[in-house]
């Protein structure tokens, strides 16, 4: 990307594209039912960020209870949701920043800083949830944190990594804009 500059059409949209993938992963984590599930038979427990559902050992109907009745449930949902909203804002700002012909590199560095703030909020929600869930809710059998919880962590890791990319990109401003005089390694005989 640095070799061809951000005017190279295939490279210009890589960072906003990765942010868009992070937004999709965040939506999957917010809407997914696989935050916590029973690992072995009988499958009696299933939880999302928003509610927990239990079923008796003999099967039957699922009985669901909202996690918003717990202070820690509201805190986990709120902090993860704030991190997700900041990610969506960064995605919109990145599209605006890379759509403008003249890049504003300080603007890009600000997006990186906002991504770090989003990562902090996301990680707070992802830590509060399992710690308080396992200590305050009675669980039977063997349970595991599952696929939707993994998508939440993937989103947080993407926020951190993309934050580094957005913050470091202005360091190569001259190379990206083509303002550096080429160096030739030629020696005469």
Feature tags:
189 residues, 6 helices, five-stranded antiparallel β-sheet, 58% helix, elongated
Q: Care to describe what's here?
A:
This protein has six helices and five strands; from the N terminus they run H-H-E-E-E-E-H-H-E-H-H. By secondary structure, the chain is an alpha+beta fold. It has one domain (19-170): Butyryl-CoA Dehydrogenase, subunit A, domain 3 (Up-down Bundle), CATH 1.20.140. Strands 4-3-2-1-5 form a five-stranded antiparallel β-sheet. Helix 2 (14-31) runs antiparallel to helix 5 and helix 4 (105-136) packs antiparallel against helix 5.
Oligomer: single chain
Q: Compute the average pLDDT.
A: 84
CATH class label: Mainly Alpha
Radius of gyration: 22 Å
Kindly name the structural category: alpha+beta
What is the fold-level CATH name, i.e. the topology?
A: Butyryl-CoA Dehydrogenase, subunit A, domain 3
In the sheet with the most strands, the strands line up as 4-3-2-1-5
Helix-strand sequence: HHEEEEHHEHH
Q: Which architecture per CATH?
A: Up-down Bundle
The major sheet is characterized as: 5 strands, antiparallel
From the spread of the alpha carbons, the general shape counts as elongated
Overview in brief:
This protein has helices spanning 9-12, 14-31, 71-99, 105-136, 147-168, 173-177; strands at 36-38, 45-47, 51-56, 59-66, 143-145.
